Amino acid sequence: MGKKLRVLLADDEPHIRLLIRSIVEIMNAEVVGEAMDGQEAVDLYSSLKPDMVLLDINMPVKSGQEALKMIMTGHSDAIVIMLTSVSDKNTVKQCIELGAANYIRKDTGISEIKKIIKETWELQKKRLRRK
Known about the structure:
Elements: E1 6-10, H1 14-26, E2 30-35, H2 38-48, E3 52-56, H3 64-74, E4 80-84, H4 89-98, E5 102-105, H5 110-130
Parallel strand pairs: 1-2, 1-3, 3-4, 4-5
Helix pairs in contact: 2-3, 3-4
């Protein structure tokens, strides 16, 4: 995979962060920061410049959608995967339209989560190389 994938993890539920952190580390990637709300995610993105953000849609202070908008405004090449427990297709669709690269439902199995992260990373790296 070349250099280690650096991930920012943003979710207000500690057990979800722990689960996702474990999956990311199993993939030999590195969690460089964790945010508990949308504003913290935006601030950490600016200071840490991660390769990828795993961003929960429903968070306090700023929602995942608001945080996504702010991140994409300053960094149009950001790679963001939305985390969602909502099966609200419209919300997910809006996030994709705002620039999210993909989404993961929180009830997805571990091997599928790893597959989505890996495939999204590979696809986005190719896209960025073409720019």
